[in-house]
Amino acid sequence: MLTLTENAAAVIRTLTTQPEVPAGSGLRIAVDRTVGALTLEIAATPAAGDAVLETGGARLFLDAEAVLVLEDKELDAAVDEQGSVEFAVSDQE
Prior knowledge:
By secondary structure, the chain is of the alpha/beta class. It has two helices and seven strands; from the N terminus they run βαββββαββ.
């Protein structure tokens, strides 16, 4: 199953606990077949069929295809000087 670095968990917690974001929200990761890439968005609830992963206080909602793609991966995150968030996926060590 996908694992998170401490940085990724902290960034996801920060994004999902903003005042305008509903309580219980999470980061939803899905496979977009039209572009062959993963999409990430803040979602109030998981979509039907999503797997829910909670780790380090962060909630992730993974669609069925993302579960397969990310099965042996690790999610990391960084915030740049302008406050932009960048997520990176790598192989688990």
